[in-house]
Amino acid sequence: MGILAIQLKTTLLVTAGAVAIGVGALAALSPFGPKGMVFVPGGEATLGYVYYTGLYGPMPYQVDTFWIDKFEVTNADYAEFVNATGHSPAAFVGEDDLNQPDQPVTGVVYEDATAYCAWKGKRLPTEVEWEKAARGTDGRIYPWGNDEDLSRAHISGEAPVAVTEYEGDISPYGVRGMAGNVSEWVSDTREARAGQCRDSHVDTRDATPEMLKLLAQLKADNGGVLPAFCSTPDPLDENVPSEPCAYIKGNNWNGRPHMTVASNRLWDYTNAYAEFVGFRCAKDK
């Protein structure tokens, strides 16, 4: 068989493969993209919580094509950045259960994450991009589908694990660890009042009567306790000064089961860090 015939046959096979496994999956397997990144085709994305409509979505969005890291940034990755630039190390350096080379880096504030991504010629993903990478186009509940098999993700543990563990925690595009291990900073920022109530599915600043009614139902469903973090009696008190905040996506090794949905949203102050919050980077195509 001649070279031209072989090339033609290969082209036909690749074309057939694109139909069989999907263009996005085929592109994600491409050896020509940025190393360690997965291709996510532009188009429709669903953003928002799927159980309590009216609290936070679901809402349709359009996104451009982009690349996203297959795995969360590791301690080894971040140490390379610190050594090359003189940037401050992560907060938990020296703590063995949080500082293994192949664990996701934690103890980083929002600016640390943006600085690392910029050093790599990348950026933090937006919230919509993050959910697109986690959920594909069908608005699934979990990265792996609608099956509530939480054993696929590393949640309710004692420490983060290597980013290559939990192979079942995988999105339609092949992105790993978006449901568990560590939650992740995304680029979206906002101003919020100090001590404002932070909930994984609802922003109380924007509460409507319908949302407040649903919050009451959520509280009743949760044994009389609202699954939120509140440090003031009235999170809607406008006399409390505002501070810059950023959104955080995904569940983590210290999280509760209901936070494992792909739409899970937290937020925190941009100068805050935690042992269960890390990040991954994205890149324009």
Q: Can you put this structure into words, describing what you see?
A:
The longest helix is centred in the N-terminal third of the chain and has 19 residues, at 3-21. Helix content is 24%, strand content 18%. It has a four-stranded mixed β-sheet. Strands 1-4-11 form a three-stranded antiparallel β-sheet. The protein contains six helices and eleven strands. The protein folds into two domains: 1-32; 34-284, paralog of FGE (formylglycine-generating enzyme) (Alpha-Beta Complex), CATH 3.90.1580. The radius of gyration is 20 Å and the shape is globular. The chain has 285 residues and is of the alpha+beta class.
Summarize the structure.
With 285 residues, the protein is of the alpha+beta class. The protein is 24% helix and 18% strand.
- Compute the number of structural domains: 2
Number of strands: 11
Percent helix among the residues? 10-25%
Average of the residue pLDDT scores: 79
Which blocks of ≥5 consecutive residues have pLDDT under 50? 1-27, 51-55, 197-206, 227-236
Strands side by side in the biggest sheet: 9-8-5-10
Radius of gyration: 20 Å
- Name the CATH architecture of the largest domain: Alpha-Beta Complex
Tell me the CATH superfamily of the largest domain.
Answer: paralog of FGE (formylglycine-generating enzyme)
Beta percentage is 15-25%
Q: How would you spell out the order of helices and strands?
A: HHEEEEHHHEEHEEEEE
CATH topology of the largest domain: paralog of FGE (formylglycine-generating enzyme)
- Tell me the distance between the termini: 37 Å
